[in-house]
Amino acid sequence: MFKFLLRSSDGIDPEMYSAGKVKNILIVRQHNQLGDMLCSVPLFAAIRKKYPEAHITLVASPINYEILFSDINPFIDKVITYRKAPLKNLVDFYKELRDHNYQIGIVPSTVSLSRTSHLINYFSGAKVRVGVKSIDGKKNEMEYLLNVKSDFEWDKNKLHQTERNLDVGRQIGCSISEKEKNEVMIHLSEDEKNFADEFVKANFPDKSKLIFGFHPGAGKVPNRWDKDKFIELIKLFNNKFDCYFMITSGSIDGEITEYVKSGLVKSGIACTVLDNTPIRKLSAVIKKLALYITNDTGTLHVAGGVDANVISLFGPTHGYEWAPTGENKFFIQSPTQDINDITVESVFRKADEFLKSEYFATESEGTF
Question: Domain check: are 256 and 176 in the same one?
Fold first, then answer.
């Protein structure tokens, strides 16, 4: 009975989401990781473009709060963090949602089909509820809570995550041009830029040397290229270039980072570790590197967000879906689903090609 009543609202009048009638919009992205959230930002830009006067609220997880509620994203007016425990937090959360009188609620389900996200969206009271009916034949079991929805074939068409997010918004006429999409990036503050300048000055004093960065860790084990391969790769760089090396490391990467650093020290190669640094300050340092080589993990998307020079490594996940795009961004996909089937030589060859390119010669002049 409950599902039947909700389905009766399908075929909603487009006039209900015309620009002049919408004052409050909710976007629910509470369950995703950092990379998923950053790939959503062009969607936020498209929503703001269509509804310039609307108040836009984002539901996010606490871990994604810092990177989004800042000048990276001028498209969101308010972020509400979703905390389901203790019970009082949950009660206060839903009370705050109901106070806004949302006309539109959007669930951009491009990674997983979250039951919780759809319930949040529905109980917000939004009259127009936008989302996904199915993804490549996989039905969204919560689609009955939506009244603007479509069947999408994203994997079949090998679409990037940014395009998948934008597809959800296009259902209600929210879109941006390719130029506008490329302009959506992390805008660093002067404090963050100064942090990077001081870090580089203190750790890499010779301005004539290039700085290469590496991230050998990752939250998901199948996304981690073998740490010995990182050591061998850095040795190749050391043999060819008079350069500096930096390793970035998060809270879960300590053991891997220490292994790589120790292996390099045994070979007489010095490296600096940038460890557990706030995301935005980390991104400011990555921006100053000649090249950043990383697994498919959060720092990859941060590097893409500041338009750094990047080579990313992919095993079971798809580079066409997740890798940052641009002339200075490359991904290497394992020929199998095993990331360790990527050879050290192939990564070094791609790096060497880029460092010899006209793009690098032009863009790096006076920068590195």
Answer: no
Taking Cα atoms as reference points, which of 64, 157, 150 lies closest to residue 108?
150
Residues 140-178: b if buried by 16+ CB within 10 A, e if exposed = bebbbbbbbbeebebeeeebbbbbbbbbbbebbebbbee
Q: Which residue has the tokens 């963090």?
A: 81
Domain that holds residue 81: 2-182
**Same-domain check for residues 152 and 229:** no
Number of domains in the chain: 2
Position 153, amino acid: E
Clarify whether residues 149 and 199 are in a common domain. Answer: no
Summarised one tens digit per residue, pLDDT across range 351-368 is 999 999 999 998 876 565
Cα separation, 35 vs 309, whole angstroms: 17
**Measuring CA to CA, which residue among 33, 26, 11, 10 is closest to residue 122?**
26
CATH number of domain containing 127 = 3.40.50.2000
* pTM of the shown model: 0.89
Q: Provide the pLDDT for residue 5.
A: 35
What is the Cα–Cα distance from 289 to 307, expressed in whole angstroms? 11
pLDDT digits (tens, 9 = 90+) for 255-268: 999 999 999 999 99
Q: What is the structure's pLDDT at 99?
A: 84
Q: Are residues 172 and 273 in the same domain?
A: no
Q: Indicate the residue among 154, 182, 210 that finishes a domain.
A: 182
Kindly report the average pLDDT of the chain as a whole number.
Answer: 91
- HSE of 356 in the Cβ direction (CA atoms, 13 Å)? 7
What pLDDT digit, counting tens, does each position of 106-125 carry? 999 998 899 999 999 999 99
What residues pair up with 106 in beta bridges, in sequence order? 27, 130
- Tell me the angle at which helices 279-286 and 190-203 cross, rounded to the nearest 10 degrees: 60
Could you tell me if residue 137 is inside a domain? yes
